[in-house]
Amino acid sequence: MGHADCGITIRILRARDVIFVTGALVTSLVALGCQESPAPFAPGSGGISLQLVIPDDQTVDNQAAGTTSVGQAAWLGEQRTSRGHLDAAIARAIGPEGPSAREHKVDLTETSSGFTGTISGLQPGSYTVAVEGLVSGEVDYFGSTSGVEVTAGKNTAASISFLPYQPVLDPPSSPITALRFAVTYSRILNADSYIVEWDTSATFGDVRSVSSTSTTAELTVADTGRYFIRVSAVSVLVESGRPSEAQFVDVVTDLTSSGDDPSTAPLVGFGTGANDSLTALNVFPIGDTDWFAIDACRSDTITVETLAGRLTPPSDVDTYLELRDVTGGTVIDSNDDAIGTDSRIEMELPSNGRYHAIVGGSANTVGRYDISFEVGPGPANTGSQCIEAPAITNYSPRRAPRGFSPVTIDGMNFTDAEVTFDGVVAPVLAGSSDTRIITSVPTEEDGLNPNPDGRLRVSNAGGYAEVSFEIQP
Question: Rounded to whole angstroms, how far apart are CA atoms 194 and 234?
C-alpha cells in the first residue's frame, strides 16, 4: 500500500459551463487532495500532484480576457481550438526555501485529456503554485495561487485563475508623421508589466523595446519607414510571455502638403481665408524645411504658430519659424522658442503680396508638428483683394509757386487717394478720377514749411507713390 501523497488537481472548465463576467476569465479549480503514491516521501516531506484538464475539441471565443485601454473587450474575433491549443505545460512550486524554490518544477506529461504531473520532495510550509501553458515554448496561458500549505497526511483546497497571457495589440493609426507615438493593448490580469518591441523587420531580428506598467506605451523611432510592433506580458513569475500578433505602422514625412522652396510652397489662402491649422507635418530628415505661402495685404496682421512640444505625446522637434517677404528672399521676422520649444510670429505686413512661412528644426532636431495661420485684415484688405498702391506716370507742372493751380497728376489706383506736398494735405479738385488727380499747391497758411523739401506724394490704404516737386517762393 502506498503512502498518502498530497497534491493539487487543476481543472479548466468548459466555456459552456461558465457565465462570463466582464474583465475576468474562467477560474480553474484547484483541489489539494491525498491520493495513493507509488513511493514514500523522504521523511517529513510532502508533494503536490497536478492534473491539467483541457476541454474536449471545440472552438472557444476567448472573450473577457481583459479590457483594452478604451474599455472594449479584448480578444474579440480571436478563436482557438481548446484541445491541442497548448503543446506543453509546466508547474512550479515556490516555497520556504527561497530562491532555490525554482528548482521545484515539473514538466507536465501530456495525456488524452490534458497534462498531469507531481512535484515531490517538498518541505512542509506555504507554497505558491504556478502553472504555465506553452505554445512553441512560450507562455500562452498562466495561473498562480499562493498560500498552498504542504503538510504530510493532510488535505487542503485552493483555486487558481488560468488566464490568457498573450496580449492583443490594438492596430495603430497608419500612416503617421510622428516619430514618437503611443500604442495600446489589452490588459493581462496576471501581468505586472509589459514589454513592447518594434523593428523594421517582421522577423524582429534587431528589436528596440520599452517597458510599461499600463496598457499604453510610447515608442520613439529614429527614421521614417514601416515598423512592426508586438507586446508581451511580464510578471514576477513569468519573465516574458508569448508575444501578441504583430501590427505595423508606416511613419512618413508629411501627410499634409508642404513645399521645399517658394516655387513649391502650397498656398494656404488669401487674407482671412488663410486662417487654418495644418496637422500631421514632419521636419525630417535633419535640415529639412517646410514652406507655406500666404497672400495678404499691406497692414494685415499675420500670426503663425507651431505646435510640437505641446502635442500629446510631445514631439522631439524644436521648431524655428521664419516669415519672408514677397520676394521670398528677405526674412522680415523669425522666432525659435516663443512657447517652450514651439515658435510664434505676429506682425503687421508692410506691403501687398505673397509671403512665405518656413518651418525647420533647431539644433538638428526632427519630428512631427502642426502649424496654424491667422490673418487679421487691415484697411487695404477688401475681403476679396488688396487695394493696390498708387502709381504716378506723369505730372505737370513739375515746379510751381505756393497756391498754384492746377497741378495734374496722371497714373493709376487714385480712387480714395490723398495728395500731400511735403506732408501738407492738398485738395483733390473736380475732374479727378482713378487715373488722374487735379490738385493745387498748398500755401504757408495751409501749413506748408517756408523751406519745403519738394516732395509730392499720392497715398491710399495700399501704399503710396512719391515724386519730386519744386515749390517756388
Answer: 5
pLDDT over threshold 70, residue 214: yes
Q: Find the CATH number of the domain harbouring 218.
A: 2.60.40.10
Would 77 be classed as within a structural domain? yes
DSSP-based three-state secondary structure for 299: coil
Reported as a single tens digit per residue, the pLDDT across 133-145 is 899 999 998 888 8
User: 352 with 271: CB under 8 angstroms?
Assistant: no
Pairing of strands 290-296, 267-270: parallel
Pairing mode, strands 344-348 and 301-307? antiparallel
Same domain for 333 and 413, yes or no, is no
Which candidate, 349, 264, 261, places its Cα nearest to that of 304? 349
Report the pLDDT value the prediction gives residue 223, as an integer from 0 to 100: 87
Alpha-carbon distance 75 to 77, whole Å?
6
The CA distance from 368 to 180, in Å, is: 8
- Do both 19 and 154 map to the same domain? yes
% of the chain beyond a pLDDT of 70: 78
Distance in angstroms (rounded) separating the CA atoms of residues 236 and 238: 6
DSSP codes of every residue in 148-210: EEE-TT--EEEEE--EE----BPPPPSSB--SEEEEEBPPPTT-SEEEEEEESSTT-SS-EEE
Last residue of a domain, one of 113, 130, 164: 164
Residue owning grid cell 508575444: 243
Q: Strand 225-234's sheet: what is its strand order?
A: 208-212, 193-199, 225-234, 247-251
Hey, which of 5-9, 40-44, 87-91, 401-405 has the most confident mean pLDDT? 401-405
Q: Are residues 160 and 301 in the same domain?
A: no
Question: What is the CB neighbour count within 10 angstroms for residue 446?
Answer: 15
Number of domains in the chain: 4
Q: Which of residues 103 and 91 earns the better pLDDT score?
A: 91
Q: Which of 333, 332, 282 is nearest to 306 (CA)?
A: 282
Judge if 145 and 33 occupy the same domain: yes
pLDDT digits (tens, 9 = 90+) for 50-80: 655 544 433 333 333 332 222 222 222 233 3
> 54-68, 214-228, 306-320 — which is least confidently predicted?
54-68
**Which of 342, 376, 410 is the endpoint of a domain?**
376
DSSP state of 349: -
Compute how many other C-beta atoms are within 10 angstroms of the C-beta atom of residue 463: 21
Give me the half-sphere count of Cα atoms (radius 13 Å) on the Cβ side of residue 448: 26
Q: Based on the domain organization, do 15 and 132 belong to the same domain?
A: yes
Residues 20 and 136 in one domain: yes
Q: By residue range, what is the domain housing residue 129?
A: 4-164
299 plus 368 within the same structural domain: yes
pLDDT tens for each residue of 28-49: 444 433 334 444 445 555 556 5
Same domain, 346 and 245: no
